[in-house]
Design a protein that fits this description.
The complex is a heterodimer of chains A (about 110) and B (about 110). By secondary structure, chain A is mainly β. Helix content of chain A is about 0%, strand content about 50%. Chain A contains no helices and twelve strands. Chain B has about 110 residues and is mainly beta. In chain B, strand 4 and strand 5 form a beta hairpin. The termini of chain B are far apart. The chains are: A mainly beta (about 110), B mainly beta (about 110).
Chain lengths: ~110, ~110
Amino acid sequence: AQSVTQLGSHVSVSEGALVLLRCNYSSSVPPYLFWYVQYPNQGLQLLLKYTTGATLVKGINGFEAEFKKSETSFHLTKPSAHMSDAAEYFCAVIGGSGTYKYIFGTGTRLKVLA
Amino acid sequence: EPEVTQTPSHQVTQMGQEVILRCVPISNHLYFYWYRQILGQKVEFLVSFYNNEISEKSEIFDDQFSVERPDGSNFTLKIRSTKLEDSAMYFCASRTRHLNTEAFFGQGTRLTVV
């Protein structure tokens, strides 16, 4: 069965500092991986996705993530945090024998300190 | 830009009452989903719907839940006899038939059972 694990339910960074949110996945088949962001009282918005091809994927708002098969990881990074990045971030996986549901991690709440 | 719309944005209901949550998926999408998020917790899969039938459902999606696509545009989630623990944010999502595409989420319906 597929799953994702997000290490760190809360992450705090200073404005301008590097953002690193961790996601590890478990999948018996090549996964499709996604990062979503959720601002307070809003729905889920796609930041970026990995399906095939280039393992370093770039998304909106300056975020990027690298798919590392050997480490079963898909960590999200942003070189310089902005106050507007404060939100909850979810890693998700889809794809597997006979299943078409997106499986979400438990989420990481990012706090940006002035 | 096409979007998934959900109504109502908030619903307060008494325990034991039936509620219907409504969603209008993106028009050319073929897969439809309902997820829920209890306050501060993870995004949980409820059900997926394809070709006018349920394709997958979780253990949460018991006999009190049902889904319907009554016409070519709406997708509904019915909870027959609400319980206090049904209080959550419910998200509708849709995607194309291609597995390597992201799900587009609505803004959610906040259901409060009193």
